Write a sequence for this structure.
């Protein structure tokens, strides 16, 4: 019997035996809460366990309004929402009006590399529903680490960056640009298929 075991181990080591694995079940997309955007994305929402880049002309261009429906749903389900180095002090009444349970909201103040480290640790922990960041100078390698951390912790990761970043490649599963004149969304990159090529109306006052 021992010889048979040794022989089987040897075959496995030599990769001469196929080791069957159960198929990985796809994880459902996270609805964005914006019907037109969900309809434009091939998986019908935010890519789960992944990094999404939101490219904006300036901070406060509607990025929070874009994310609020998802954050409210997650927070009300008991999931922790973490903001890392937000550019402005969050206005509690606005978050409450958006339906976000403030008891589930955490804010981490940090700078540059410390902020990126904090984002990565929060994502890897698997204890957060979503992590939001506004990284300044960030390269492809750092973004890739965030993407891997989001996959590891099965967490939604959002990085709000300037629209100039659209000229550079990114490992993010989804890239959306917010325009203010006219007010619209543009899907620049998405995982899982082709997205709608035409702009999507986006009313930041609604």
């Amino acid at each position: 019997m021992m010889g048979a075991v040794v022989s089987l181990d040897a075959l496995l080591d030599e990769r001469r035996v196929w080791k069957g694995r159960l198929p990985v079940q796809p994880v459902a997309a996270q609805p964005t809460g914006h019907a037109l955007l969900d309809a434009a994305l091939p998986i019908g929402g935010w890519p789960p366990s992944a990094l999404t880049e939101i490219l904006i002309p300036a901070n406060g261009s509607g990025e929070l309004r874009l994310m609020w429906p998802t954050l409210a749903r997650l927070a009300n389900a008991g999931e922790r929402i973490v903001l890392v180095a937000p550019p402005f002090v969050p206005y509690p009444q606005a978050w409450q009006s958006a339906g976000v349970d403030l008891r589930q909201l955490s804010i981490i103040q940090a700078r540059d590399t410390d902020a990126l480290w904090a984002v990565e640790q929060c994502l890897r922990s698997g204890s957060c529903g979503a992590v939001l960041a506004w990284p300044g100078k960030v390269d492809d390698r750092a973004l890739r680490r965030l993407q891997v951390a989001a996959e590891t912790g099965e967490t939604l990761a959002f990085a709000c960056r300037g629209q100039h970043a659209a000229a550079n490649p990114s490992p993010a599963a989804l890239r959306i640009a917010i325009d203010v004149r006219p007010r619209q969304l543009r899907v620049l990159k998405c995982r899982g298929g082709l997205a709608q090529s035409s702009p999507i109306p986006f009313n930041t006052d609604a």
